[in-house]
């Protein structure tokens, strides 16, 4: 087992740079997830680690060996592809044994490892089948099996679940997590699905346009996103963003937008004063679960309220998402209890949990609370 | 009632047209075989015999032993075999490059390959003859192998490009991650999946080389180097035509082609359908 280190990695195709200055240190045994919208360079980064794509600039290490120019076969990595890439002319057993055979393992050892993997993945009864006679989920497991028999230093997985149906995807998500915990193999996992990323990764690497935005634990990414992109990309339904101004009012700082006056917490007030944001435009970000529905009570004594009406309700069964008319042509989404029955068009009073609100610089989109 | 009219309809829309077409296509074959099995007198006898009254294999024995079809057959086989090997080799490489690599002028190159198919062979006879004469290769099988290979590479490269494109790149990449070099990946993963395509290419090339007449006729002037098609043409002399030997020789020439198709049929159907599924 070993860690992986990427230092100032670039990938260029002619004049276009698709991966830019990636610095990433993956610890031994860690499960790291590269996440971002499609086309942001996740696969390219992964393929550079695999050696399937040339590194244009920078250094890459597995353990403490620099292996920029090492061919994939010598890197001691295993990869799971999005379309599984099972060899169609080999049966399940041969598919799993192929990597070991190419590495000249002895027959009994190959046999032992394949059966072990088949056992773990519930493939024992399918060993003689050809890939075309397997279901999507079974193919997925064979692809995993092919990776684990190798007992490599690093697993690389490129959207391995995206071809499965929703239910199987959730099931395989936990299977893969369990497997990784059990085998303790350093894993780099690529996905565009933020739920997958949040649930599986020890740490997430959020990417956009070939640039790493933030590297942190799921908790930290969720609760302290460095910028509006990360804040908006992670979390479903997405965070609400509201444009407004900061104004001093006595020793308090108030966020104002048309019809809105929300009081910042003391910490937030201190920070924005120090960084000279008072009197300037900012964007406030509030997650749907940090907005409370106070019902129809108009005589509310509560602070930080917003009076609006419900436009659309989405009932998921466990909870209901209320999409309300927001400030200045935007929508405001909140999570609410299913037990409170509301009508579309009904007037509601919402209260914002300002402790959980995030403040972003309007031009740089950086999280003000994390600025120095 | 209903059933009968349905059957009738099926007969007129399906079996009857098929029967007509088959008769039309098969009659020359039938007539060749028919002629080959008659003795010399019966061949030109009037009225024509649609079923030979007396079956004889003399024509075959004569053609094979005395006229030299044994040698022509060997020459053709050698020529076609060598052509197949070199065409399959080059077409696979060109097809691989076309399918897997991006390079400047790829579109133009593909177009050029296609354009070569529009040049009529007859136009090239004189230049080719001069080239091979200067190289001292007239009546040398090598000249025909080179000529055939040259003519067959473009089309078969395009064909192989299609077959190779049908094998997902990820399979090759998976093999490389699994411990193969690029060549090993091609050998262990791409090649087996490409076999239908290779067989298709090989069969097409074989049939072409086996049947080709014009170049073989022009570039060969010694009987020892005649191919079957050239040998057959000499059965039609200026003053008489040796019908028996001509028919028997034709049947002899047909046999390998038929065997080839029978063997390669399932590959051809698979190969041309482009069905290498992941
Ligand atoms: N061979 C190539 N030539 C030019 N651009 C490419 C090539 N391969 C990928 N790209 C570009 O690189 C970007 C990143 O691709 P990729 O890493 O596959 O994204 P992701 O996996 O995050 O969806 C994309 O915008 C894609 O268009
Ligand atoms: Mg991708």
Structure write-up:
- The complex is a heterodimer of chains A (372) and B (278).
- Chain A is an alpha+beta fold.
- Chain A folds into 2 domains: 230 residues, P-loop containing nucleotide triphosphate hydrolases (Rossmann fold); 131 residues, OB fold (Dihydrolipoamide Acetyltransferase, E2P) (Beta Barrel), CATH 2.40.50.140.
- Chain A has 9 helices and 20 strands.
- Chain A has a 6-stranded mixed β-sheet with strand order 6-7-8-3-9-10, sandwiched between helices. A 5-stranded antiparallel β-sheet of chain A has the order 13-12-11-14-20.
- The mean pLDDT of chain A is 92.
- By secondary structure, chain B is mainly alpha-helical.
- Chain B has one domain: MetI-like fold (Orthogonal Bundle), CATH 1.10.3720.
- Helices cover 76% and strands 0% of the residues of chain B.
- Chain B is built from 12 helices and no strands.
- In chain B, helix 1 packs across helix 12, helix 5 packs across helix 7 and helix 7 crosses helix 9.
- The longest helix of chain B has 35 residues.
- The C terminus of chain B is likely disordered.
- Chains A and B meet through strand 6 and helix 2 of A and helix 8 and helix 9 of B.
- The complex binds adenosine-5'-diphosphate (ADP) and magnesium ion.
- Magnesium ion (MG) binds next to helix 1 of chain A.
Topology:
The complex is a heterodimer of chains A (372) and B (278).
Chain A lengths: L3 E10 L2 E11 L4 E5 L6 H9 L6 E6 L2 E2 L10 E4 L11 H11 L4 H14 L15 H13 L5 E5 L7 H18 L2 E6 L2 H7 L2 E6 L2 E6 L1 H6 L4 H6 L6 E10 L2 E6 L2 E4 L2 H9 L6 E6 L4 E3 L11 E11 L3 E7 L5 E7 L9 E6 L5 E4 L11
Parallel strand pairs in A: 3-8, 3-9, 6-7, 7-8
Antiparallel strand pairs in A: 1-2, 1-4, 4-5, 9-10, 11-12, 11-14, 12-13, 14-20, 15-19, 16-17, 16-19, 17-18
Chain B lengths: L1 H35 L3 H4 L14 H10 L1 H32 L5 H11 L4 H14 L6 H25 L3 H9 L4 H30 L2 H5 L9 H6 L9 H31 L5
The structure holds adenosine-5'-diphosphate (ADP) and magnesium ion (MG).
Magnesium ion binds next to α1 of chain A.
InterPro entries (chain B): BP-dep_ABC_trans_perm (IPR050901), MetI-like (IPR000515), MetI-like_sf (IPR035906)
GO cellular component, one term (chain B): plasma membrane
Membrane topology (chain B): Multi-pass membrane protein
């Amino acid at each position: 087992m070993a860690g992986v280190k990427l230092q100032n990695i670039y990938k260029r195709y002619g004049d276009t740079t698709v991966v830019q200055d990636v610095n990433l240190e993956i610890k031994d045994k860690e499960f790291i997830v590269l996440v971002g919208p499609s086309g942001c360079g996740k696969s390219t980064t992964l393929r550079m680690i695999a050696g399937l794509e040339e590194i244009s600039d920078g250094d890459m290490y597995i353990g403490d060996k620099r292996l920029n120019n090492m061919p994939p076969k010598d890197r001691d990595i295993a990869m799971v592809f999005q379309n599984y890439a099972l060899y169609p002319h080999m049966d399940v057993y041969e598919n799993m044994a192929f990597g070991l055979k190419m590495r000249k393992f002895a027959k009994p050892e190959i046999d032992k490892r394949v059966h072990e993997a088949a056992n773990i993945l519930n493939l024992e009864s399918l060993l003689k089948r050809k890939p075309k006679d397997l279901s999507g989920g079974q193919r997925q497991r064979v692809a995993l099996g092919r990776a684990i028999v190798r007992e490599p230093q690093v697993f690389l997985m490129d959207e391995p679940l995206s071809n499965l149906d929703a239910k199987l995807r959730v099931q395989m998500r936990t299977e893969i997590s369990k497997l990784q915990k059990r085998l303790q193999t350093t894993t780099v996992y690529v996905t565009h699905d933020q739920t997958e990323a949040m649930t599986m990764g020890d740490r997430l690497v959020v990417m956009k346009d070939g640039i790493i935005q933030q590297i942190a634990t799921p908790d930290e990414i969720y609760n302290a996103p460095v910028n509006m992109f990360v804040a908006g990309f992670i979390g479903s339904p997405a965070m609400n963003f509201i444009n407004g101004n900061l104004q001093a009012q006595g020793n308090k700082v108030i966020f104002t937008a048309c019809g809105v006056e929300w009081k910042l917490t003391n910490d937030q007030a201190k920070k924005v004063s120090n960084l000279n944001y008072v009197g300037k435009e900012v964007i406030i970000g509030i997650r749907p679960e940090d907005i409370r529905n106070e019902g129809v009570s108009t005589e509310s004594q509560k602070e930080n309220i917003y009076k609006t009406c419900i436009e659309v309700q989405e009932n998921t069964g466990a909870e209901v998402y209320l999409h309300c008319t927001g400030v200045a042509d935007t929508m405001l989404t909140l999570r609410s209890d299913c037990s409170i029955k509301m009508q579309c068009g009904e007037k509601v009073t919402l209260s914002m949990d300002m402790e959980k609100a995030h403040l972003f610089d309007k031009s740089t989109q950086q999280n003000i609370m994390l600025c120095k | 009632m209903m059933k009968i009219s349905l059957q009738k309809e099926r007969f007129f829309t399906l079996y009857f047209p098929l029967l007509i077409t088959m008769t039309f296509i098969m009659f020359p074959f039938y007539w060749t075989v028919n002629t080959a099995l008659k003795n010399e007198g019966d061949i030109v006898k009037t009225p024509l015999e649609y079923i030979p009254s007396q079956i004889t294999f003399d024509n075959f024995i004569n053609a094979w032993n005395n006229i030299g079809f044994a040698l022509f057959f060997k020459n053709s086989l050698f020529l076609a075999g060598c052509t197949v090997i070199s065409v399959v080799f080059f077409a696979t490489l060109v097809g691989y490059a076309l399918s897997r690599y991006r390079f400047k002028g790829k579109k133009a190159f593909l177009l050029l390959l296609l354009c070569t198919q529009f040049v009529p062979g007859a136009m090239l006879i004189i230049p080719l003859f001069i080239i091979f004469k200067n190289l001292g290769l007239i009546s040398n099988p090598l000249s025909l192998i080179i000529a055939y290979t040259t003519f067959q590479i473009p089309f078969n490269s395009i064909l192989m490009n299609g077959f190779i494109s049908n094998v997902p790149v990820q399979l090759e990449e998976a093999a490389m991650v699994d411990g193969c070099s690029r060549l090993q990946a091609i050998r262990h993963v791409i090649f087996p999946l490409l076999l239908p395509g290779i067989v298709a290419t090989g069969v097409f090339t074989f049939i072409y080389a086996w049947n080709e007449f014009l170049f073989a006729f022009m570039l060969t002037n010694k009987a020892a180097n005649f191919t079957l098609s050239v040998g057959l043409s000499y059965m039609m002399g200026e003053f008489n035509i040796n019908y028996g030997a001509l028919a028997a020789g034709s049947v002899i020439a047909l046999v390998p082609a038929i065997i080839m198709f029978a063997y390669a049929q399932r590959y051809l159907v698979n190969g041309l359908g482009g069905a290498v599924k992941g």
